[in-house]
Protein: Cytidine deaminase
Amino acid sequence: MKTIDISIKIGFCQVEELSTADQHLIQRAVEATGNSYSPYSCFRVGAALLLADGTEVIGANQENAAFPSGLCAERSAIFAAQSVYPGQAVTTLAIAAANEYGLMRDPIVPCGACRQVILEIEDRYKQPIRILLYGTNGVYVINSVKDLLPLQFIGESMK
Ligand code: THU
Structure:
């Protein structure tokens, strides 16, 4: 059996090194953590995304006493954006999170289900989404969700 080597490159920088537009989107994600409804996990996640026409949409995790009925911040933002602004590609997605002690030092990464939903948007609009994962220690800059989901299942996979 041969081995297939899959490698990815992810950027890491301080928030001040990013463009003003990126810093602004991260700030929106940080603010969106305040809209989290997370009485069960006490983990507040905020997402802010930029659409192709420049519109910004935010989302925050929304929990439920019946745990699986809640939704992550990333999917809240993406589904809201696609519902209110149909036909608009997502160009950038920023994510921030806080626990009871405040903003996370290390960035958090989207869960598997959110990665799959972000992938669908990339595939739908045929353009990559830059993902900015914010932590107070620094920011991971990811050029496409494919770097977080190296083997992808998309609509084309069923043909
Ligand atoms: N959560 C998100 O909103 N996004 C992520 O990327 C990871 C997890 C939420 C789901 C749940 O409300 C809480 O964080 C704890 O898992």
Observations:
- DSSP finds three helices and seven strands in the chain.
- Strands lie at 11-13, 44-51, 56-60, 90-99, 102-103, 130-135, 138-142.
- The mean pLDDT is 98.
